[in-house]
Amino acid sequence: xxxxxICIHTTNEAIEPISNILHEAGASGVVIEDADDFHxxxxxxxxxxxxxxPADYISEGVYLKAYLPMNSFLGEAVEQIKQAINQxxxxxxxxxxxxxxxxxxxxxxxxxxxxxxxxxxxVSDHITITPTxxxxxxxxxxxxxxxxxxxxxxxxxxxxxxxxCIQAIEQYLKSNQTVVDVGTGSGVLSITAALLGAEHVxxxxxxxxxxxxAGINIKLNKTESKITVKQNNLLDRVTVEPDLIxxxxxxxxxxxxEKDAFALLKPGGLxxxxxxxxxxxxxxxxxxxxxxxxxxxxxxxxxxxxxxAKKPA
Length: 313
Ligand SMILES: C[S@@+](CC[C@H](N)C(=O)[O-])C[C@H]1O[C@@H](n2cnc3c(N)ncnc32)[C@H](O)[C@@H]1O
Hints:
Layout: E1 2-10, H1 15-24, E2 30-34, H2 35-39, E3 62-69, H3 74-87, E4 99-106, H4 107-113, E5 121-122, E6 127-131, E7 144-148, H5 160-172, E8 178-182, H6 188-195, E9 200-205, H7 208-220, E10 227-231, E11 244-248, H8 251-254, H9 258-264, E12 270-277, H10 281-291, E13 294-301, E14 304-310
Parallel strand pairs: 6-7, 8-9, 8-11, 9-10, 11-12
Antiparallel strand pairs: 1-3, 1-4, 2-3, 5-6, 12-14, 13-14
This protein binds S-adenosylmethionine.
Binding site for S-adenosyl-L-methionine: 162, 183, 205, 248
Main location: cytoplasm
Organism: Amphibacillus xylanus (strain ATCC 51415 / DSM 6626 / JCM 7361 / LMG 17667 / NBRC 15112 / Ep01)
């Protein structure tokens, strides 16, 4: 089959919403080419494993590439994508150059194109994420390796918001706690919590493809006895009483269920949220405080913010 590659020159801040738009338009897999990935300094303590070829990287901004089947709906899909991206301006999201190009690729190129950007990466003191197709040997006995096949779901583990969440889970999760992961994507945060000693993790996603991808990754990492994954909208009808809720979602979505998170958490429980761009930090913090939370910590990576909030004991 012939595929069309759609390439969007945009900004770091727009990666997540545009990836969602591309998925909704029927794209299979999104490749992120980020100029910062080449220029940023590698963290030696976290021992990131990278072999980068400058020729593979762009000089500025981010290219998002996705693949759409070449059929009679292509024109319509591209139009729908363009309109949805322009709508992001309403939410104050910087879409940068927003230059969109289309080119033809064959099946073989499409299947492997995105894999060259995805390498094993040490994301926290204990967690390394490696794609299923890479051979990786842990460097120390306390290193936990998560194998991921991101498939079509968000969550390769390399997005700054995911890394911030993994680091916060590592810092705050205590063994035998109950965790809820809202918007699990590839399941990476649930797997992290399970490997770090959670008693049970409830993973939810609105997207059926994400639920399927998470299920596969949960089994791949032998964590199925500790994680229940289900299609669900936010915390609707969830009745478990977690010690910790993690939600890596856009600010606008977090501000739709912060009160539900507060009500559900055990007293003293934590709400870890990311997916928040810096411009929305205060809005989210105010919403959390209005719901009754205390802000415990705020962490930053690139243009992204992570907030740890506590329900008073
Ligand atoms: C930014 S991704 C995070 C994936 C993963 N947790 C991570 O940290 O890498 C957000 C995920 O939230 C899901 N999502 C969006 N709206 C949702 C909703 N209303 N309820 C549940 N999940 C939702 C999306 O399908 C997507 O998989």
